[in-house]
């Protein structure tokens, strides 16, 4: 196993000038020895490029790669001692399942007894034990991909195992089982795993740390809880969660108090809003964006002409959807919309009702004009770090 350090950029075209010429903009990042990582982002954001640079299939146009401090930039995947699992099964049809699993070990001259033990263990983990003597040619695509996963995991001496969307061909139910299985296998084998996916549920279930990428940039590296609670960039807030984070156009007045549509959000002067006190002074007179996840928006009835509760904005209910495990309420606030996830046991307000929506609280995030996080609630606020993993379960 190895610690992997990257300090690089990559452009497929020669002589890159603008950001858009780069598949990967300059980045510095480390994968800790024995960690389970996911590279997550939409199509074309640079995930495969990054994975291929780690494996040695691609040489970065700038900078380099270090394994345990050693410069491996010019080395091949074999020399780097990398195992890879691709989208589609790479196995030998004429061999049995056991022979396929044993292949990477036999290639390296591992002793027979050791091979038998390791193949037995991997087959057991992947529930392939009863198929070990079957010829691979007769197996389903799912079973073949399981063998590919097994071949990737069978060697104990690899620097890292890299997965490029390995569950694409897998049937949805089995996909769910395998995601959990891989997590369990990581805990047992303690291999460094890097897993490319565009599916947030897959990333959040599998990885301890997730690298969120967009347009050639790694915008945040964090645990599921960190990405959910404190997205460091608006893209992360939007991409993680179902639905993603709400963003409202906001500003600060001369004293640094937050305003929406030119009106101060009530309660800030006294610090009365429950759980809300920014962890730094907000710049006065700035154009900002207020981010709050649908899970954390509180919805209260609002009497005509009645005062707005602290930390709230006024809105009108546009839509209420029954999602099964929760209600999804959409409210109009001036020209913008805000979504709130309400408990399935609650009685949501009717469409057309005027409501107060609490947007300031312990989970509010404030973003600057460049979409980067500039403030959250100061410590001491209520934390719900397990939320994302639970949400990932809801989505499956
Ligand atoms: N061999 C190549 N030559 C030129 N451009 C490439 C090459 N491979 C990828 N690109 C471009 O580099 C950018 C990043 O591609 P990459 O395949 O790394 O993204 P990705 O996030 O893995 O996408 P996907 O999920 O669709 O595989 C894209 O704009 C893509 O068109």
UniProtKB/TrEMBL annotation:
Keywords: ATP-binding, Cell membrane, Membrane, Nucleotide-binding, Transport. Residues 6-240 form the ABC transporter domain. It comes from Roseateles aquatilis. Transmembrane segments: none annotated. PANTHER family: ABC TRANSPORTER ATP-BINDING PROTEIN, MALTODEXTRIN IMPORT ATP-BINDING PROTEIN MSMX. Residues 380-396 have a biased composition (Basic and acidic residues). One of its GO terms (molecular function) is ATP hydrolysis activity. Residues 377-396 are annotated as: Disordered. This is ABC transporter ATP-binding protein. GO terms for cellular component: ATP-binding cassette (ABC) transporter complex, substrate-binding subunit-containing. Pfam families: ABC_tran, TOBE_2. PROSITE patterns: ABC_TRANSPORTER_2 (PS50893). It comes from the Bacteria.
């Amino acid at each position: 196993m190895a610690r992997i350090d990257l300090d690089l950029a990559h452009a497929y075209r020669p002589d890159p000038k603008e950001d858009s010429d780069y598949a990967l903009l300059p980045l510095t990042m480390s994968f800790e020895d024995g960690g389970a990582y996911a590279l997550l982002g939409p199509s074309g954001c640079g995930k495969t490029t990054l994975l291929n640079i780690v494996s040695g299939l691609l040489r970065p146009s700038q900078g380099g790669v270090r394994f345990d401090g050693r410069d491996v930039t010019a080395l091949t995947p074999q020399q780097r001692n990398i195992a890879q699992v691709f989208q589609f099964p790479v196995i030998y049809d004429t061999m049995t399942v056991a022979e396929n699993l044993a292949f990477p070990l036999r290639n390296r001259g591992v002793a027979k007894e050791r091979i038998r033990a390791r193949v037995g263990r991997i087959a057991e983990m992947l529930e392939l034990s009863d198929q070990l003597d079957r010829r691979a040619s007769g197996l389903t695509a799912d079973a073949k991909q399981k063998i590919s996963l097994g071949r990737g995991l069978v060697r104990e001496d690899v620097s890292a195992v890299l997965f490029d969307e390995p569950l694409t061909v897998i049937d949805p139910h089995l996909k769910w089982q395998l995601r959990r299985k891989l997590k369990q296998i990581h805990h047992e084998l303690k291999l460094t795993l890097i897993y490319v996916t565009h599916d947030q549920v897959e990333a959040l279930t599998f990885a301890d740390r997730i690298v969120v990428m967009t347009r050639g940039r790694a915008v945040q590296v964090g645990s599921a809880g960190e990405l959910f609670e404190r997205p460091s960039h608006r893209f992360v807030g939007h991409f993680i969660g179902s639905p993603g984070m709400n963003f409202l156009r906001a500003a600060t007045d001369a004293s640094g108090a937050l305003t929406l549509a030119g009106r101060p959000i009530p309660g800030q002067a006294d610090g009365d809003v429950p759980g809300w006190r920014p962890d730094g002074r907000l710049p006065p007179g700035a154009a900002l964006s207020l981010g709050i996840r649908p899970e954390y928006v509180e919805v209260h009835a609002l009497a005509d002409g009645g005062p707005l509760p602290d930390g709230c904005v006024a809105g009108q209910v546009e839509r209420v959807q029954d999602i099964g495990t929760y209600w999804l309420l959409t409210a109009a606030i001036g020209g913008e919309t805000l979504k709130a996830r309400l408990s399935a046991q609650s009685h949501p307000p009717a469409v057309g009702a005027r409501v107060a929506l609490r947007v300031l609280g312990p989970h509010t995030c404030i973003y600057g004009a460049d979409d980067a996080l500039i403030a959250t609630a100061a410590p001491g606020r209520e934390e719900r770090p397990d939320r994302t993993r639970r949400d990932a379960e809801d989505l499956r």
